[in-house]
Amino acid sequence: MITKKMTKERKIIITVDGYSSCGKSTFAKAIARELGYIYIDSGAMYRAVTLFALRRGLVAEGIADEKRILEILPEISITFRPDRETGYPVTYLNGEMVEREIRDREVSENVSPVSTIAGVRARLVELQRALSTGGGVVMDGRDIGTVVFPDAELKIFMTASPEVRAQRRYLELVSKGLPADFDAVMRNLSERDRIDSSREASPLRRAEDAVILDNSEMTPEEQMIWFRELYRRRMNES
Ligand code: DC
């Protein structure tokens, strides 16, 4: 059981890293709701920068103009405001609501090359830290437990089998009425895994002190039961 006393006494930082389409954001949002913490989607920031670069014609077909993107970075402001109905943060790019657009296929296909640019990462890491002062934050991404918050009190690394991840992503696209092809989804996921894990700047890897959650065969409720136990133990240990 997670008691009110536990969540009030000490507000910690919880990091959730892992591969694409593992259900990180669903899980991280559920944790944040349960603890009364803020949820921060670091991937949305990389997606917002990618959208801006796409609009300026600085990235296309997976190739980014690194030099020009670094030049236009100071023109980009990324903010989050809570959705009126769900309370979850919605992404704004220079004051424009872009939550839907940043999830589009074009952004998904170009976000990996933009996020390999070290200068882009440095700027976004700064922003991620600034948004988290005081704790009480659940942040998901790829390098949150390794680079952004190496001293975070609770780190989780999520994984699931490639087939399960592709199936989830495929069903998500279908449910949104978007064109979906299972094999193409598999290819896009494995390409993103390859780039995310092999890039020079902050590659995706598990922090040594991160706890692994393989949710291939777990329901969202089973994941929450797993998390409550982990959190309770961690809070009692320290
Ligand atoms: O979590 P997501 O799929 O929305 O993230 C989009 C892309 O952003 C992903 O392909 C890798 C990149 N990303 C990153 O490099 N570092 C993070 N902390 C979060 C996302």
Task: Describe this protein's structure.
- The chain has about 240 residues and is of the alpha/beta class.
- It has a single domain (about 10-235), classed as Rossmann fold.
- It is built from 10 helices and 10 strands.
- The chain has helices at about 5-10, 25-35, 40-55, 65-70, 105-115, 120-130, 145-150, 160-175, 180-200, 220-235, and strands spanning about 15-20, 40, 60, 65, 80, 90-95, 95, 135-140, 155-160, 210-215.
- It has a 5-stranded parallel beta sheet. A 3-stranded antiparallel beta sheet has the order 5-6-7, with helices on one face.
- Strand 3 (about 60) and strand 4 (about 65) form a beta hairpin.
- Helix 5 runs parallel beside helix 9 (about 180-200).
- The radius of gyration is 18 Å and the shape is globular.
- It binds 2'-deoxycytidine-5'-monophosphate (DC).
- 2'-deoxycytidine-5'-monophosphate binds near residues 46 and 111.
Number of domains: 1
Based on CA atoms alone, the radius of gyration comes out at: 18 Å
Biggest β-sheet strands, sense, barrel: 5 strands, parallel
Bound molecules: 2'-deoxycytidine-5'-monophosphate
Number of strands: 10
CATH topology: Rossmann fold
Q: Provide mean pLDDT, rounded.
A: 93
Q: Choose one word for the global shape.
A: globular
